[in-house]
Design brief:
352 residues; alpha/beta; eight-stranded parallel barrel; two-stranded antiparallel sheet; 14 helices; 16% strand; binds ligand G3I
Amino acid sequence: MNLLKRLGCRRASVLGLLAATVLVTPGTATGAPDAVQASTLGAQAAQSGRYFGTAVSAGRLGDGTYTGILDREFNSVTAENEMKWDATEPSRGSFTFGRADQIANRAQARGQRLRGHTLVWHSQLPGWVGSIRDANTLRGVMNNHITTVMNRYKGRIHSWDVVNEAFADGGSGQMRSSVFRDVLGTGFIEQAFRTARSADPAAKLCYNDYNIENWSDAKTQGVYRMVRDFKSRGVPIDCVGLQAHFGAGGPPGSFQTTLSNFAALGVDVQITELDIAQAPPTAYANTVRACMNVPRCTGITVWGIRDSDSWRSGENPLLFDRSGNKKPAYNATLTAMGGTPTAAHGKPAVTP
Ligand code: G3I
């Protein structure tokens, strides 16, 4: 069977695949290859129709080691900070897309897919928004922000984090206090999703949060109830982003259950900001395996490339070391997706 047809590849996947070393295991009696193993993260993820992405910082795009890994390994890109409100609308009605465009245009030119992060978030929010006290004004400002930013990238973003981190930590299971909840009420999330659907009907609309990986946590349950409510009332929501910023122990034992339970509501799930303190290979493998085991887990994004690029760089939580070398967690991740790690000379790595 034609390899590319069999893989059902989109353009990005095809490019990623061709860029990678692909190992085809000996054919069966029919002559068809019975397994295909790639040697990069994006190409291997693409074989099951998934993406493997990373957060990208515009300020690092001049670093050849960084871009070399980016273009070799990843087929989806999330702007780490450049699409946030403080970056895109620093003063009311005045939009700046320079750095976001840099990331988006670069990714598009290389056939990498784009995740949008993020439209409505209480953090990295310019002061002028936080000081609005009138509901009609804030509603108008929020809708205009969503519409303008989504229009800019219309048709180019596969998934948008429409609302980020709206739920409180701890045992309440409720939404956290923010200018949006406090001025507009808890209905601001529904409003944001409805506006987002009108702005770019082709984008998957995600609710994204951290500490919602453990099924029994009150925060997980609060988000689950919201998504269930949205689905039952026809509020447009397509996916839940689980950030997956883990400690050294990796994902909780219930992680796959959480992914499956959200998926059973009729939404995709995505791992959106993965990093793990000290990057234990087993912890990475367990995380990736949980996603691979859930058909509606459509992709994984790690939150940076090298440890030195990470927001928690002191914990060395990523897949590449400060010099850009693959860490043991890299091989564990690739292997968990069914890929074959290669040694530096391009041959399959010999594992002890
Ligand atoms: O842009 C300014 C720069 O002008 C200034 O000189 C410099 C001095 O500190 O700060 C720069 O801003 C920094 C910004 O990143 C851009 O580099 C902020 O201080 C810094 O706080 C900010 O951190 C980001 C953080 O979100 C802010 O909340 C991290 O890079 C980014 O990785 C992190 O990402 C978040 C996700 O968006 C949501 N989920 C959690 C995740 C980790 O916190």
